[in-house]
């Protein structure tokens, strides 16, 4: 069984034993899309589509005044 650390939320994410570099998986904790890549013999993941967990407040870029 192989685990990686989700770079978005820091949780362990289980990946398939047959996972390979370039596979896109989804973190079961934060639902971000992660792309796998290998560093030496270990998998790591890169966020390709981040889901906000519950920090949806900081979107006040409105310039309408
Ligand atoms: Zn996550």
In short:
The chain is mainly β. The protein is built from no helices and five strands. A hairpin with a 6-residue loop joins strand 1 and strand 2 (12-15).
Report on the architecture of this protein.
The chain has no helices and five strands. The chain is mostly beta strands and 65 residues long. It has one domain: Rubrerythrin, domain 2 (Single Sheet), CATH 2.20.28. A three-stranded antiparallel beta sheet has the order 3-4-5, with no helix packed on it. It has a two-stranded antiparallel sheet with strand order 1-2. A hairpin with a 6-residue loop joins β3 and β4.
Protein traits:
0% helix; single chain; mainly beta; two-stranded antiparallel sheet; binds zinc ion; 5 strands; 65 residues; three-stranded antiparallel β-sheet
Ligands and ions found:
zinc ion
In which range does the helix fraction lie?
A: under 10%
Span between termini: 54 Å
CATH fold name = Rubrerythrin, domain 2
Number of strands: 5
In percent, how much strand structure appears in the residues? 35-45%
| CATH 2nd-level architecture | Single Sheet
Which SSEs are present, and which pair or pack?
Blueprint (H helix, E strand, L loop, with lengths): L1 E4 L6 E4 L8 E3 L6 E7 L2 E8 L16
Antiparallel strand pairs: 1-2, 3-4, 4-5
